[in-house]
Design goal:
The structure holds two protein chains of two kinds. By secondary structure, chain A is an alpha+beta fold. Chain A contains eight helices and ten strands. In chain A, the strands form three sheets. A five-stranded antiparallel β-sheet of chain A has the order 1-2-6-10-7, sandwiched between helices. A three-stranded antiparallel β-sheet of chain A has the order 3-4-5, with no helix packed on it. Chain A has a two-stranded antiparallel sheet with strand order 8-9. Chain B is α/β, with parallel strands linked by helices. In chain B, about 55% of the residues lie in helices and about 10% in strands. In chain B, helix 1 crosses helix 4, helix 3 runs antiparallel to helix 4 and helix 4 crosses helix 5. Chain B is globular and about 55 Å long. The termini of chain B are far apart. Classes of the chains: A alpha+beta, B alpha/beta. The interface between A and B is medium-sized, with 28 and 26 residues.
C-alpha cells in the first residue's frame, strides 16, 4: 500500500450502535440492566444522532520509512516507545496506518450540561454512549483499513493506541506529528488528552505476514483497563 | 410504622434507589412511599435529623458502596441510590443550615491540573456525601494553588485528588507534595484508573483506593481516631 491519507465522515446509522452495546458498556454484561435504563438508552440514542459529528481518517506510512526491527517502532523520524508487547505484534508489518477518529464534542457537551443541571444519571448515560460511539468509529476505521489491505492481498493487526498495552499516552503528541495538521479536527492538550475527548487514535500494522489476535487484551496485564472491559463485552 | 421502622425502610429505599411514591422503580416497590415521603414521616414520628442521616441515609449508601465495590451493582444503580438520597436531603437541608445535623467533616475534592475527567471524581464525592461529609468540589483541571487555597479556607479538611491520565499523574504528584509540605497534618487521598498503591505511596499520599467505598471506609477510620 502506498503512503497517502484517507478521511471520511460517518453518520449515526452507519456506526450501528445498539442499546445492548450501551447496556454492556454501563456494566450490565452478565446481569440484566435495571428497568429504567432501556428507555433512557433509547432516548439517548435518538438524541445522540443529532449530536454526532464523526470524522475518521488514516495515514499510511510504508516500508522505507519504517524500522520495526527493534523493541520500539521507528516511523520516519519518530521513535515510538510502544513497549515490547505492541512492537512485537507490529514487527512484520510492511505498512503502518496511523489513524484517528472522533465523534465531535456534541455528546460530551450534552452530558456535561445534564450533570450541571443535576441529572448525573442522564449525564453518565450520555458520556458512556459517547465512549461507545467513539469505539464504534474506531471500529469503522479498522474495517476501512482492513478492506483496503484486502484489496492488496494484505492483512492487518489489531489496533493499538497510546495509553494502552504499556504504550504511554504522552506519545499521542508524537503520533499526531505524523498526521496532517488538524487531522479530523482533533487537537491535543499538553497532557496529551484529545479534544474532543470522545476520540480514538492509534496504529494498525499492515502486511502479508501480520496477524490479528481474536482477543488482543490477552496479551496485556492491565486488568482495570477500560478498553479491555469494552472489548470483553464485544468479543462474544 | 415506628420511627425505627421508618428509618430502616428509608435505608432500604436509598439502597434500592426508590426516590418517591410516584417513581415506578424498582418495580416491586411501585406505589409505595420512597425516600422523599419516608424522610418526612420519620422526622414527624420523632426521629432526629441526625438519626435520619446516620441510621438511614448513611446506612443505605454504605450498603450501595459495598455492593459497588464488590461489582454486584454498577454506576447507574449507584446514581439511582444517590437520587433517592438527594430526595431525602431536600428535607434535611434546614437542619444542615442550622447545624442541628453534625457532619463528619469537610472533603475538598478535585481532578488535578491538565485533566478534564469529571465523572469518577463526582462519584466519589457523592459517596462521601452519603457517608456524612461536606463536599467542596473544585471541579476539573485544578491547579496546586487552588487546592492550597481550598485547604486554607477549610482548615480541618481532608483532600481528595483524582487523575485519569498517566500524563496528569505528574500534576498529582506536585499537588500532593505541595499540600503536604504546607499542611503536613492534612490527609490526602488519591484515586483514578491509572494509579497504583505504589504510586500513591511514592508521592506521599495518605491513602489510595481503587473504588469509592475504600475512601468512605478510610475516612470513617479517621473520624474514629480523631
Amino acid at each position: 500500500m502506498n503512503a497517502h491519507t484517507h478521511t471520511f465522515e460517518l453518520d449515526a446509522a452507519s456506526l450501528n450502535v445498539t442499546p445492548k452495546d450501551v447496556e454492556c458498556a454501563l456494566g450490565y454484561i452478565d446481569i440484566p440492566a435495571p428497568e429504567y435504563l432501556p428507555e433512557m438508552i433509547d432516548e439517548a440514542l435518538a438524541t445522540a444522532a443529532g449530536l454526532l459529528d464523526v470524522h475518521c481518517g488514516y495515514h499510511l506510512i510504508t516500508g522505507p520509512e519504517l524500522d520495526l526491527t527493534s523493541s520500539d517502532v521507528h516511523c520516519r523520524d519518530v521513535r515510538f516507545n510502544t513497549g515490547s508487547i505492541i512492537a512485537k505484534r507490529l514487527r512484520y508489518s510492511t505498512s503502518l496506518a496511523l489513524f484517528a477518529a472522533t465523534i465531535g464534542g456534541g455528546i460530551e457537551r450534552f452530558s456535561r450540561q445534564q450533570m450541571a443541571a443535576g441529572d448525573m444519571m442522564g449525564g453518565f448515560v450520555y458520556d458512556t454512549l459517547g465512549s461507545v460511539y467513539a469505539e464504534a468509529a474506531a471500529d469503522a476505521i479498522e474495517r476501512a483499513i482492513d478492506a483496503a489491505a484486502s484489496e492488496m492481498n494484505e492483512k492487518i493487526t489489531n489496533r493499538y493506541s497510546p495509553g494502552y498495552c504499556d504504550w504511554s499516552v504522552a506519545e499521542q503528541h508524537a503520533l499526531f506529528t505524523l498526521l496532517p495538521p488538524g487531522f479530523c479536527g482533533i487537537t491535543l492538550t499538553s497532557s496529551a488528552l484529545m479534544l474532543p475527548v470522545k476520540s480514538v487514535s492509534g496504529i494498525i500494522g499492515i502486511g502479508t505476514d501480520v496477524k490479528r489476535e481474536q482477543y488482543q487484551c490477552a496479551i496485556c496485564d492491565m486488568n482495570d483497563c477500560i478498553r479491555k472491559k469494552y472489548l470483553s463485552t464485544h468479543s462474544h | 410504622m415506628t420511627s425505627t421502622e421508618l428509618l430502616a425502610t428509608l435505608a432500604m429505599c436509598v439502597e434500592r434507589g426508590k426516590v418517591n411514591a410516584k417513581a415506578p422503580f424498582p418495580p416491586d416497590l411501585k406505589g409505595q412511599d420512597g425516600a422523599d415521603e419516608l424522610t418526612v414521616q420519620a422526622l414527624a414520628a420523632g426521629a432526629t435529623p441526625q438519626e435520619v442521616l446516620t441510621q438511614a441515609l448513611m446506612v443505605g449508601m454504605n450498603r450501595v458502596g459495598e455492593k459497588f465495590r464488590d461489582k454486584k451493582i454498577f454506576v447507574p444503580d449507584l446514581l439511582m441510590a444517590a437520587r433517592a438520597m438527594n430526595a431525602s436531603m431536600v428535607h434535611m437541608q434546614p437542619y444542615f443550615k442550622s447545624a442541628e445535623v453534625k457532619l463528619r467533616g469537610t472533603v475538598v475534592i478535585g481532578t488535578v491540573a491538565g485533566d478534564l475527567h469529571d465523572i469518577g471524581k463526582k462519584l466519589v464525592a457523592m459517596m462521601l456525601e452519603g457517608a456524612g461529609w461536606k463536599i467542596v468540589d473544585l471541579g476539573t483541571d485544578v491547579s496546586t494553588q487552588k487546592f492550597i487555597d481550598a485547604v486554607k479556607e477549610n482548615p480541618q479538611c481532608v483532600v481528595g485528588m483524582s487523575a485519569l491520565l498517566t500524563t496528569t499523574m505528574a500534576s498529582m504528584e506536585e499537588s500532593v507534595k505541595k499540600v503536604k509540605e504546607i499542611f503536613p497534618s492534612t490527609k490526602v487521598l488519591v484515586g483514578g484508573a491509572p494509579l497504583t498503591l505504589e504510586f500513591a505511596q511514592k508521592i506521599g499520599a495518605d491513602f489510595y483506593s481503587p473504588d469509592p467505598q475504600g475512601a468512605v471506609e478510610y475516612l470513617n477510620t479517621l473520624q474514629m481516631t480523631s
